[in-house]
């Protein structure tokens, strides 16, 4: 009879050690995400000073700062909380809400920055903006509801005396299917955005005119023929691939490692990916608009203008027959 409680105690200890090991792995992933994020911030610090901090304040600048520094600060706090063995119960009771909504906030800001680029690509079409806002808002409303329901089901427990566990002692979200639905919808919307921006440029009149005028020129000369279009295509593709890959891996972790704390190992990398991809999206565009374009062959081009009212609009395209000295300079100030 005495072997029954002994077996139960042994099983409980094994579960405890497994939880500690999983938490350690999640912390390592978070630290690695912070290191990657900090490294990228160092690489782009000069660009950021020139293109962001010295520029006037616009809503795009605010979005850039939010997506980058909110994510970075949260990831640092995440590491601090998850490695602290003396986190108070009052902090832990609020922590699931912070941890639950922070990845969604980063995804929201990053997605909205990409939405602005699609809106610009479609010539500030009101119909396209309405469509984009509909699917974007629908996605985020569903996500907020799901996250709220999941966090409400999380149980925060006081610490067990004699066991210096790092972080907060909480249960896992009770309904994994809800979480899966949330991130699957996120991937679907990201895919729709990617298809829209690719279709606009690859099937648009500007691209057809460029390809007709290029004749037998190599497709790799496209970067010189239409640098702004190339930038949209390149950055849009990279943004989608980074976000989609991080999102897919996060889904795999949630499914394969369900029921264990380590299922959250992909969230820190997902946040870092959204923040880095979104900030690069902004910096690359701003940087391209400050660089002179040395090209002797341009049949058609899309140039961006940042007017005083904010937002991205298209300036008139220029013909390749027009001499460079006759082209009116576009106002790229922001």
Automatic annotation (TrEMBL):
It holds the Pfam family DUF6533. InterPro entries: DUF6533. Keywords: Membrane, Transmembrane, Transmembrane helix. The chain crosses the membrane at residues 24-42, 62-81, 101-122, 129-149, 180-203, 238-259. Residues 29-73 form the DUF6533 domain. This is DUF6533 domain-containing protein. The lineage of its organism: Eukaryota, Fungi, Dikarya, Basidiomycota, Agaricomycotina.
């Amino acid at each position: 009879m005495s072997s029954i409680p002994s077996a139960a105690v042994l099983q409980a200890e094994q579960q405890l050690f497994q939880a500690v090991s999983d938490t350690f792995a999640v912390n390592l992933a978070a630290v690695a995400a912070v290191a990657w994020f900090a490294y990228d911030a160092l690489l782009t610090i000069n660009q950021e000073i020139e293109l962001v901090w010295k520029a006037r304040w616009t809503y795009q600048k605010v979005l850039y700062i939010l997506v980058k520094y909110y994510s970075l600060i949260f990831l640092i706090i995440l590491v601090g909380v998850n490695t602290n063995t003396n986190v108070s119960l009052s902090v832990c009771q609020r922590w699931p809400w912070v941890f639950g909504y922070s990845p969604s906030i980063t995804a929201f800001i990053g997605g909205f920055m990409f939405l602005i680029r699609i809106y610009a690509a479609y010539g500030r079409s009101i119909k396209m903006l309405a469509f984009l806002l509909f699917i974007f808002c629908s996605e985020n409303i569903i996500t907020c509801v799901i996250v709220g329901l999941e966090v409400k089901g999380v149980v925060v427990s006081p610490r067990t005396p004699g066991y210096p566990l790092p972080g907060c002692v909480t249960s896992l979200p009770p309904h994994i299917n809800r979480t899966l639905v949330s991130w699957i919808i996120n991937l679907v919307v990201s895919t729709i955005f990617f298809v829209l921006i690719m279709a606009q440029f690859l099937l648009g009149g500007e691209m057809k005119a460029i390809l007709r005028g290029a004749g037998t020129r190599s497709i790799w000369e496209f970067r010189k023929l239409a640098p702004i279009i190339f930038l949209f295509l390149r950055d849009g593709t990279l943004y989608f691939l980074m976000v989609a890959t991080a999102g897919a891996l996060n889904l795999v972790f949630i499914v394969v490692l369900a029921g264990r704390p380590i299922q959250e190992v992909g969230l820190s990398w997902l946040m870092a990916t959204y923040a880095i991809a979104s900030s690069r999206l902004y910096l690359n565009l701003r940087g391209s608009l400050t660089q002179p374009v040395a090209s002797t062959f341009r049949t058609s081009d899309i140039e961006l203008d940042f007017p005083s009212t904010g937002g991205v609009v298209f300036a008139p395209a220029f013909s390749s027959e027009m001499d460079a000295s006759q082209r009116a300079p576009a106002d790229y100030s922001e």
